[in-house]
Amino acid sequence: MAAAKTDRGIPLSTLCTNYLETNATSHRGPFSAIAELIDNAYDPDVNAKQIWIDKTKIRDMECLTFTDNGNGLDQKTMQRMLSFGFSNKIALNGKLPIGMYGNGFKSGSMCLGQDAIILSKSMNDLCVGMLSQTYLEKIGAKHIAVPIISFNKNEANKFSGREMWENRASLKDILEHSPFNTEEELLTELRAIESTSGTKIIIWNLRRTSEGNTELDFNTENDIRIPCDDLDTSDTSVPESHSSLRAYCSILYLRPSMQISIRGQMVGNCPIYESLECIDRTYSYKPRVVEKKIPITFGYTTKSIQHYGLMMYYNNRLIKAYHRVGCQLKATNRRSVGIIGVIECNYLKPTHNKQDFDNTDTYRNTILSVASKLRDYSGKRRNNPSDNVPIEEPDDERTHDNDQLQETSGEGASGTKRPRRNCDGGEPEMHMSLRSSAAPTRENVEISREREQLLGANRSLTQENQDLMAQRDVLNLKVEQLEREKASLSEECEKNKSDRAPKQSCRPCELEQLNYECNVIEEILEQVLRINGPTSQQYH
Question: What is the tens place of the pLDDT at every residue in 214-228?
Answer without folding.
Answer: 999 999 999 999 987
